[in-house]
Hints:
The structure holds two protein chains of two kinds.
Chain A: H1 2-23, H2 40-50, H3 52-56, E1 74-77, E2 80-83, H4 100-109, H5 124-127, H6 132-142, E3 156-157, H7 167-174, H8 187-199, H9 202-206, E4 224-225, E5 232-233, H10 238-241, H11 245-254, H12 265-274, H13 279-291
Antiparallel strand pairs in A: 1-2, 2-3, 4-5
Chain B: H1 2-13, H2 32-55, H3 63-77, H4 102-105, H5 107-128, H6 132-153
Helix pairs in contact in B: 2-3, 2-6, 3-5, 5-6
Amino acid sequence: MIRVLLRLALFTAAVAGLAFWAVTRPATLPADTALPAGDPVNGALVFAAAGCASCHAEPGSGSPDAPVLSGGRAFKTDFGTFYAPNISPDPDAGIGSWTEVDFARALTKGVSPDGQHYYPAFPYTAYAFMTPQDTGDLLAYMRTLPASPTVSQPHDLGFPFSIRRGLGVWKVLNQSADYHLQGELSEQEVRGRYIAEGLAHCSECHTERDALGGLNRSRWMAGAPSPTGKGRIPNITPGVLGWSEADLTAYFTSGLTPEYDSAGGDMAVVIENLAKLPEADRAALAAYMLRIETVR
Amino acid sequence: MKKRVILPLVAALAVTATVGTAFGDGHANADPAIKARQAQMSLVAYNMGILGAMAKGETEFSTETATAAAESLAKVAKLDRSILWTDGTVQGEVPGTRAKAEIWTDAAGFEKAAVGLETAADGLVVAAGQDLDALRAAMQAAGASCGTCHKAYRGPKN
Protein backbone atom coordinates (compact mmCIF):
# COMPACT_ATOMS: atom_id res chain seq x y z
CA MET A 1 0.00 0.00 0.00
CA ILE A 2 2.70 2.41 1.02
CA ARG A 3 4.52 1.55 -2.16
CA VAL A 4 1.50 2.41 -4.23
CA LEU A 5 1.14 5.74 -2.52
CA LEU A 6 4.78 6.46 -3.00
CA ARG A 7 4.52 5.71 -6.70
CA LEU A 8 1.51 7.90 -6.98
CA ALA A 9 3.34 10.72 -5.30
CA LEU A 10 6.32 10.34 -7.58
CA PHE A 11 4.10 10.26 -10.61
CA THR A 12 2.28 13.41 -9.52
CA ALA A 13 5.55 15.18 -8.90
CA ALA A 14 6.77 14.23 -12.34
CA VAL A 15 3.64 15.55 -14.02
CA ALA A 16 3.86 18.78 -12.04
CA GLY A 17 7.51 19.08 -13.02
CA LEU A 18 6.70 18.60 -16.67
CA ALA A 19 3.94 21.18 -16.49
CA PHE A 20 6.33 23.62 -14.86
CA TRP A 21 8.86 22.96 -17.60
CA ALA A 22 6.29 23.50 -20.32
CA VAL A 23 4.82 26.64 -18.81
CA THR A 24 8.19 28.21 -18.17
CA ARG A 25 9.67 27.42 -21.60
CA PRO A 26 10.98 30.67 -23.09
CA ALA A 27 9.01 31.77 -26.13
CA THR A 28 10.67 31.85 -29.52
CA LEU A 29 9.99 33.84 -32.63
CA PRO A 30 9.85 32.05 -35.98
CA ALA A 31 13.42 31.86 -37.32
CA ASP A 32 12.40 33.75 -40.44
CA THR A 33 10.96 36.71 -38.52
CA ALA A 34 12.18 39.60 -40.65
CA LEU A 35 12.11 43.14 -39.37
CA PRO A 36 11.39 45.82 -41.99
CA ALA A 37 14.45 47.80 -43.10
CA GLY A 38 15.13 50.17 -40.20
CA ASP A 39 14.80 53.94 -40.31
CA PRO A 40 17.08 55.41 -37.62
CA VAL A 41 15.27 58.76 -37.65
CA ASN A 42 12.01 57.20 -36.52
CA GLY A 43 14.06 54.86 -34.34
CA ALA A 44 15.33 57.84 -32.34
CA LEU A 45 11.71 58.77 -31.55
CA VAL A 46 10.86 55.21 -30.53
CA PHE A 47 13.96 55.21 -28.33
CA ALA A 48 12.85 58.44 -26.64
CA ALA A 49 9.23 57.35 -26.16
CA ALA A 50 10.36 54.01 -24.72
CA GLY A 51 12.80 55.65 -22.31
CA CYS A 52 15.61 53.14 -22.95
CA ALA A 53 18.30 55.65 -21.99
CA SER A 54 16.70 56.29 -18.58
CA CYS A 55 17.82 52.85 -17.51
CA HIS A 56 20.67 51.91 -19.84
CA ALA A 57 22.66 55.11 -20.33
CA GLU A 58 25.48 55.94 -18.00
CA PRO A 59 24.46 59.28 -16.48
CA GLY A 60 26.49 62.16 -17.84
CA SER A 61 28.12 60.06 -20.53
CA GLY A 62 28.00 60.84 -24.22
CA SER A 63 25.85 63.66 -25.58
CA PRO A 64 22.07 63.93 -25.36
CA ASP A 65 21.93 62.96 -29.05
CA ALA A 66 24.28 60.02 -28.68
CA PRO A 67 23.98 58.44 -25.25
CA VAL A 68 26.41 55.68 -24.30
CA LEU A 69 24.26 52.68 -23.40
CA SER A 70 26.86 51.06 -21.18
CA GLY A 71 24.32 50.20 -18.46
CA GLY A 72 25.24 50.02 -14.82
CA ARG A 73 22.24 51.74 -13.27
CA ALA A 74 21.31 49.80 -10.15
CA PHE A 75 17.74 48.95 -9.15
CA LYS A 76 17.61 48.05 -5.48
CA THR A 77 14.72 45.83 -4.42
CA ASP A 78 13.84 43.65 -1.46
CA PHE A 79 15.03 40.70 -3.50
CA GLY A 80 18.44 42.01 -4.39
CA THR A 81 19.93 44.47 -6.80
CA PHE A 82 19.44 44.45 -10.57
CA TYR A 83 21.87 46.20 -12.89
CA ALA A 84 20.87 47.44 -16.34
CA PRO A 85 23.21 45.74 -18.83
CA ASN A 86 25.34 47.23 -21.59
CA ILE A 87 23.17 47.42 -24.74
CA SER A 88 25.57 49.53 -26.81
CA PRO A 89 26.66 48.21 -30.24
CA ASP A 90 29.89 46.76 -28.84
CA PRO A 91 30.03 43.18 -30.23
CA ASP A 92 31.41 41.66 -27.01
CA ALA A 93 30.28 43.82 -24.09
CA GLY A 94 27.05 45.03 -25.71
CA ILE A 95 24.56 43.67 -28.23
CA GLY A 96 26.50 44.48 -31.40
CA SER A 97 26.57 40.85 -32.52
CA TRP A 98 22.83 40.31 -32.07
CA THR A 99 20.61 39.57 -35.05
CA GLU A 100 17.37 41.41 -35.58
CA VAL A 101 15.47 38.35 -34.40
CA ASP A 102 17.54 38.25 -31.20
CA PHE A 103 16.67 41.88 -30.56
CA ALA A 104 12.95 41.51 -31.30
CA ARG A 105 12.74 38.42 -29.10
CA ALA A 106 14.44 40.18 -26.18
CA LEU A 107 12.26 43.26 -26.47
CA THR A 108 8.86 41.75 -27.17
CA LYS A 109 9.14 38.31 -25.51
CA GLY A 110 11.63 39.04 -22.74
CA VAL A 111 13.86 36.16 -23.82
CA SER A 112 17.62 36.34 -24.37
CA PRO A 113 19.41 35.00 -27.48
CA ASP A 114 20.46 31.94 -25.46
CA GLY A 115 16.88 31.28 -24.40
CA GLN A 116 16.77 32.67 -20.85
CA HIS A 117 13.91 34.72 -19.44
CA TYR A 118 14.64 38.32 -18.54
CA TYR A 119 13.45 39.87 -15.29
CA PRO A 120 10.56 42.26 -15.78
CA ALA A 121 12.68 45.08 -14.41
CA PHE A 122 13.18 45.33 -18.16
CA PRO A 123 9.64 46.44 -19.11
CA TYR A 124 9.12 43.98 -21.97
CA THR A 125 5.51 43.27 -21.00
CA ALA A 126 4.81 46.77 -22.39
CA TYR A 127 7.31 46.58 -25.27
CA ALA A 128 5.47 43.40 -26.35
CA PHE A 129 3.09 45.77 -28.16
CA MET A 130 5.90 47.37 -30.21
CA THR A 131 5.26 47.06 -33.95
CA PRO A 132 7.84 45.22 -36.08
CA GLN A 133 8.49 48.48 -37.96
CA ASP A 134 9.21 50.41 -34.76
CA THR A 135 11.35 47.55 -33.43
CA GLY A 136 13.42 47.54 -36.63
CA ASP A 137 13.74 51.33 -36.60
CA LEU A 138 14.78 51.28 -32.96
CA LEU A 139 17.56 48.79 -33.63
CA ALA A 140 18.72 50.79 -36.68
CA TYR A 141 18.99 53.86 -34.44
CA MET A 142 20.73 52.03 -31.60
CA ARG A 143 23.35 50.78 -34.07
CA THR A 144 24.33 54.42 -34.71
CA LEU A 145 25.17 55.01 -31.02
CA PRO A 146 28.70 54.78 -29.58
CA ALA A 147 29.96 51.32 -28.57
CA SER A 148 31.18 50.85 -25.00
CA PRO A 149 33.49 48.06 -23.82
CA THR A 150 32.15 48.20 -20.23
CA VAL A 151 31.24 44.68 -19.15
CA SER A 152 27.69 44.29 -17.77
CA GLN A 153 27.49 43.75 -14.04
CA PRO A 154 25.77 40.55 -12.89
CA HIS A 155 22.63 41.04 -10.80
CA ASP A 156 23.05 40.59 -7.10
CA LEU A 157 20.13 38.28 -6.24
CA GLY A 158 19.75 35.56 -3.65
CA PHE A 159 18.21 32.14 -4.25
CA PRO A 160 15.49 31.53 -5.39
CA PHE A 161 15.23 34.87 -7.16
CA SER A 162 18.32 34.05 -9.14
CA ILE A 163 16.51 31.24 -11.01
CA ARG A 164 15.39 32.72 -14.32
CA ARG A 165 13.33 29.71 -15.33
CA GLY A 166 10.73 30.58 -12.70
CA LEU A 167 10.00 33.80 -14.57
CA GLY A 168 8.08 31.74 -17.13
CA VAL A 169 5.26 31.35 -14.64
CA TRP A 170 5.23 35.04 -13.89
CA LYS A 171 5.02 35.79 -17.59
CA VAL A 172 2.06 33.46 -18.11
CA LEU A 173 0.26 35.25 -15.30
CA ASN A 174 1.23 38.78 -16.21
CA GLN A 175 1.88 39.17 -19.91
CA SER A 176 -1.36 40.63 -21.21
CA ALA A 177 -2.24 39.61 -24.74
CA ASP A 178 -4.19 42.75 -25.39
CA TYR A 179 -4.33 46.40 -24.43
CA HIS A 180 -6.01 47.45 -21.22
CA LEU A 181 -8.16 50.18 -22.78
CA GLN A 182 -10.79 48.58 -25.00
CA GLY A 183 -13.83 49.86 -26.85
CA GLU A 184 -14.50 52.21 -29.74
CA LEU A 185 -11.41 54.36 -30.05
CA SER A 186 -10.56 57.13 -32.49
CA GLU A 187 -7.38 56.86 -34.52
CA GLN A 188 -5.79 59.41 -32.19
CA GLU A 189 -6.78 57.42 -29.08
CA VAL A 190 -5.39 54.25 -30.63
CA ARG A 191 -2.09 56.04 -31.19
CA GLY A 192 -2.15 57.35 -27.61
CA ARG A 193 -2.81 53.86 -26.28
CA TYR A 194 0.15 52.48 -28.22
CA ILE A 195 2.44 55.11 -26.73
CA ALA A 196 1.07 54.88 -23.17
CA GLU A 197 0.61 51.13 -22.79
CA GLY A 198 3.33 50.02 -25.17
CA LEU A 199 6.32 52.27 -25.72
CA ALA A 200 6.25 54.58 -22.70
CA HIS A 201 5.09 51.96 -20.18
CA CYS A 202 3.29 54.59 -18.05
CA SER A 203 1.50 51.88 -16.06
CA GLU A 204 4.78 50.39 -14.84
CA CYS A 205 5.01 53.35 -12.49
CA HIS A 206 1.42 54.60 -12.18
CA THR A 207 -0.36 51.27 -11.53
CA GLU A 208 0.03 49.43 -8.23
CA ARG A 209 1.05 45.78 -8.19
CA ASP A 210 -0.70 42.74 -6.78
CA ALA A 211 0.81 40.22 -4.39
CA LEU A 212 2.53 38.41 -7.25
CA GLY A 213 4.05 41.57 -8.64
CA GLY A 214 1.73 41.86 -11.62
CA LEU A 215 -0.09 45.07 -12.46
CA ASN A 216 -3.41 45.37 -10.61
CA ARG A 217 -5.45 46.09 -13.73
CA SER A 218 -8.58 47.00 -11.81
CA ARG A 219 -6.67 50.04 -10.54
CA TRP A 220 -5.16 51.06 -13.89
CA MET A 221 -3.10 54.26 -13.50
CA ALA A 222 -4.69 54.93 -10.10
CA GLY A 223 -1.31 55.49 -8.46
CA ALA A 224 1.15 53.31 -6.60
CA PRO A 225 3.38 53.48 -3.58
CA SER A 226 6.72 54.97 -4.44
CA PRO A 227 9.36 52.25 -4.56
CA THR A 228 11.57 54.43 -2.40
CA GLY A 229 9.00 54.07 0.37
CA LYS A 230 8.37 57.81 0.60
CA GLY A 231 5.29 59.36 -0.94
CA ARG A 232 3.16 57.96 -3.76
CA ILE A 233 3.22 58.01 -7.50
CA PRO A 234 0.07 59.99 -8.30
CA ASN A 235 -3.30 58.72 -9.48
CA ILE A 236 -3.63 60.03 -13.05
CA THR A 237 -7.10 58.74 -13.91
CA PRO A 238 -9.15 61.59 -15.40
CA GLY A 239 -11.74 62.19 -12.67
CA VAL A 240 -9.08 62.32 -9.98
CA LEU A 241 -6.48 64.34 -11.86
CA GLY A 242 -9.05 66.75 -13.32
CA TRP A 243 -6.76 68.14 -16.02
CA SER A 244 -7.99 69.19 -19.47
CA GLU A 245 -6.59 67.79 -22.69
CA ALA A 246 -4.65 71.05 -23.14
CA ASP A 247 -3.29 70.78 -19.57
CA LEU A 248 -2.08 67.26 -20.25
CA THR A 249 -0.50 68.09 -23.60
CA ALA A 250 1.25 71.10 -22.06
CA TYR A 251 2.54 68.98 -19.17
CA PHE A 252 3.93 66.36 -21.55
CA THR A 253 5.59 69.16 -23.55
CA SER A 254 7.00 71.55 -20.96
CA GLY A 255 6.66 69.64 -17.70
CA LEU A 256 4.52 72.47 -16.33
CA THR A 257 1.47 71.53 -14.27
CA PRO A 258 -1.76 73.59 -14.42
CA GLU A 259 -0.40 75.40 -11.33
CA TYR A 260 2.82 76.14 -13.22
CA ASP A 261 4.98 74.06 -11.01
CA SER A 262 7.26 71.67 -12.85
CA ALA A 263 7.18 67.89 -12.87
CA GLY A 264 9.58 66.31 -10.43
CA GLY A 265 11.15 62.96 -9.71
CA ASP A 266 11.27 60.33 -12.40
CA MET A 267 8.44 62.05 -14.25
CA ALA A 268 10.79 64.89 -15.18
CA VAL A 269 12.88 62.38 -17.12
CA VAL A 270 9.79 60.90 -18.78
CA ILE A 271 8.85 64.40 -19.95
CA GLU A 272 12.32 65.14 -21.31
CA ASN A 273 11.70 62.11 -23.53
CA LEU A 274 8.09 62.93 -24.45
CA ALA A 275 9.17 66.46 -25.39
CA LYS A 276 11.21 64.96 -28.25
CA LEU A 277 8.11 63.42 -29.87
CA PRO A 278 5.98 65.19 -32.46
CA GLU A 279 3.27 67.28 -30.84
CA ALA A 280 0.61 65.04 -32.39
CA ASP A 281 1.93 62.16 -30.27
CA ARG A 282 1.69 64.13 -27.04
CA ALA A 283 -1.85 65.19 -27.96
CA ALA A 284 -2.65 61.52 -28.64
CA LEU A 285 -1.30 60.59 -25.22
CA ALA A 286 -3.53 63.26 -23.65
CA ALA A 287 -6.54 61.93 -25.57
CA TYR A 288 -5.78 58.43 -24.27
CA MET A 289 -5.47 59.69 -20.70
CA LEU A 290 -8.97 61.14 -20.84
CA ARG A 291 -10.43 57.84 -22.06
CA ILE A 292 -9.24 55.62 -19.24
CA GLU A 293 -11.60 54.87 -16.41
CA THR A 294 -11.61 57.03 -13.29
CA VAL A 295 -10.53 54.97 -10.27
CA ARG A 296 -10.55 56.58 -6.84
CA MET B 1 7.26 24.82 -4.20
CA LYS B 2 4.74 27.23 -5.61
CA LYS B 3 6.06 30.00 -3.47
CA ARG B 4 9.57 29.35 -4.65
CA VAL B 5 8.56 29.65 -8.23
CA ILE B 6 6.61 32.79 -7.82
CA LEU B 7 8.90 34.75 -5.61
CA PRO B 8 11.66 35.32 -8.12
CA LEU B 9 9.19 36.97 -10.32
CA VAL B 10 7.91 39.22 -7.68
CA ALA B 11 11.45 40.32 -7.18
CA ALA B 12 11.74 41.61 -10.61
CA LEU B 13 8.64 43.62 -10.57
CA ALA B 14 9.45 45.64 -7.65
CA VAL B 15 12.20 46.95 -9.78
CA THR B 16 10.31 48.99 -12.26
CA ALA B 17 10.46 51.62 -9.73
CA THR B 18 10.32 55.28 -9.30
CA VAL B 19 10.95 58.03 -6.94
CA GLY B 20 7.92 60.14 -6.26
CA THR B 21 8.41 63.71 -5.32
CA ALA B 22 6.01 66.52 -5.05
CA PHE B 23 6.36 70.09 -4.16
CA GLY B 24 7.04 71.70 -0.88
CA ASP B 25 4.88 74.22 0.73
CA GLY B 26 5.71 77.44 2.38
CA HIS B 27 5.91 77.58 6.10
CA ALA B 28 4.34 80.24 8.24
CA ASN B 29 7.35 80.92 10.43
CA ALA B 30 10.02 80.38 7.83
CA ASP B 31 13.08 82.56 7.39
CA PRO B 32 12.26 85.82 5.52
CA ALA B 33 14.64 84.91 2.68
CA ILE B 34 12.75 81.64 2.21
CA LYS B 35 9.43 83.49 2.10
CA ALA B 36 10.83 86.01 -0.36
CA ARG B 37 12.13 83.43 -2.82
CA GLN B 38 8.89 81.47 -2.59
CA ALA B 39 7.07 84.71 -3.42
CA GLN B 40 9.43 85.05 -6.38
CA MET B 41 8.43 81.55 -7.55
CA SER B 42 4.74 82.47 -7.13
CA LEU B 43 5.26 85.48 -9.40
CA VAL B 44 7.07 83.31 -11.92
CA ALA B 45 4.15 80.86 -11.86
CA TYR B 46 1.57 83.68 -12.11
CA ASN B 47 3.14 85.15 -15.22
CA MET B 48 3.80 81.74 -16.74
CA GLY B 49 0.12 81.00 -16.16
CA ILE B 50 -0.97 83.98 -18.27
CA LEU B 51 1.34 82.90 -21.09
CA GLY B 52 0.43 79.24 -20.65
CA ALA B 53 -3.29 79.92 -20.96
CA MET B 54 -2.58 81.48 -24.37
CA ALA B 55 -0.27 78.64 -25.38
CA LYS B 56 -3.00 76.13 -24.46
CA GLY B 57 -5.62 78.07 -26.40
CA GLU B 58 -7.65 78.81 -23.27
CA THR B 59 -7.34 82.54 -23.83
CA GLU B 60 -6.84 84.53 -27.03
CA PHE B 61 -3.23 85.35 -27.90
CA SER B 62 -2.57 89.04 -27.37
CA THR B 63 0.83 90.58 -28.00
CA GLU B 64 0.25 93.26 -25.35
CA THR B 65 -0.78 90.95 -22.53
CA ALA B 66 1.83 88.37 -23.46
CA THR B 67 4.54 91.01 -23.53
CA ALA B 68 3.45 92.39 -20.16
CA ALA B 69 3.55 88.93 -18.58
CA ALA B 70 6.85 87.98 -20.20
CA GLU B 71 8.53 91.24 -19.22
CA SER B 72 7.35 90.88 -15.60
CA LEU B 73 8.65 87.35 -15.60
CA ALA B 74 11.99 88.45 -17.01
CA LYS B 75 12.35 91.05 -14.24
CA VAL B 76 11.38 88.63 -11.50
CA ALA B 77 13.85 86.07 -12.85
CA LYS B 78 16.66 88.59 -12.40
CA LEU B 79 16.15 89.33 -8.70
CA ASP B 80 19.47 89.36 -6.88
CA ARG B 81 20.17 85.80 -5.83
CA SER B 82 22.77 86.65 -3.17
CA ILE B 83 20.09 87.98 -0.78
CA LEU B 84 17.49 85.30 -1.59
CA TRP B 85 19.58 82.17 -1.20
CA THR B 86 21.20 83.01 2.12
CA ASP B 87 23.59 80.61 3.81
CA GLY B 88 22.02 77.95 5.97
CA THR B 89 18.47 78.22 4.56
CA VAL B 90 18.61 74.61 3.47
CA GLN B 91 16.11 71.75 3.61
CA GLY B 92 16.58 69.62 6.70
CA GLU B 93 18.22 72.39 8.71
CA VAL B 94 15.47 75.00 8.78
CA PRO B 95 11.71 74.55 8.31
CA GLY B 96 9.66 75.46 5.27
CA THR B 97 12.12 74.99 2.45
CA ARG B 98 13.02 72.34 -0.10
CA ALA B 99 16.24 74.05 -1.13
CA LYS B 100 18.92 71.39 -1.48
CA ALA B 101 22.42 71.81 -0.11
CA GLU B 102 23.69 71.57 -3.70
CA ILE B 103 22.58 75.18 -4.22
CA TRP B 104 25.54 76.17 -2.07
CA THR B 105 27.93 73.28 -2.64
CA ASP B 106 27.52 73.53 -6.43
CA ALA B 107 27.07 77.29 -6.63
CA ALA B 108 28.33 77.48 -10.22
CA GLY B 109 25.81 74.88 -11.39
CA PHE B 110 22.99 76.64 -9.56
CA GLU B 111 24.00 79.97 -11.07
CA LYS B 112 23.96 78.42 -14.53
CA ALA B 113 20.47 77.00 -13.96
CA ALA B 114 19.25 80.36 -12.66
CA VAL B 115 20.69 82.15 -15.69
CA GLY B 116 18.84 79.50 -17.72
CA LEU B 117 15.57 80.90 -16.36
CA GLU B 118 16.66 84.46 -17.21
CA THR B 119 17.46 83.36 -20.77
CA ALA B 120 14.19 81.48 -21.11
CA ALA B 121 12.27 84.53 -19.84
CA ASP B 122 14.05 86.77 -22.36
CA GLY B 123 13.04 84.23 -25.01
CA LEU B 124 9.42 84.59 -23.91
CA VAL B 125 9.64 88.38 -24.28
CA VAL B 126 10.84 87.98 -27.88
CA ALA B 127 8.21 85.33 -28.63
CA ALA B 128 5.42 87.42 -27.08
CA GLY B 129 6.16 90.09 -29.69
CA GLN B 130 5.87 87.51 -32.47
CA ASP B 131 3.03 85.00 -32.62
CA LEU B 132 1.36 82.08 -30.90
CA ASP B 133 3.65 79.44 -32.42
CA ALA B 134 6.72 81.29 -31.19
CA LEU B 135 5.14 81.61 -27.75
CA ARG B 136 4.40 77.90 -27.56
CA ALA B 137 7.97 76.99 -28.49
CA ALA B 138 9.31 79.45 -25.90
CA MET B 139 7.00 77.99 -23.23
CA GLN B 140 8.47 74.55 -23.85
CA ALA B 141 11.98 75.93 -23.36
CA ALA B 142 10.90 77.80 -20.22
CA GLY B 143 9.29 74.68 -18.75
CA ALA B 144 12.46 72.73 -19.43
CA SER B 145 14.51 75.35 -17.58
CA CYS B 146 12.20 75.06 -14.53
CA GLY B 147 12.58 71.29 -14.64
CA THR B 148 16.37 71.38 -14.99
CA CYS B 149 16.78 73.52 -11.90
CA HIS B 150 14.17 71.72 -9.81
CA LYS B 151 15.63 68.35 -10.67
CA ALA B 152 19.07 69.26 -9.40
CA TYR B 153 18.34 71.74 -6.62
CA ARG B 154 14.89 71.09 -5.17
CA GLY B 155 14.54 68.42 -2.58
CA PRO B 156 11.63 66.02 -2.03
CA LYS B 157 8.35 67.16 -0.56
CA ASN B 158 8.82 65.34 2.72
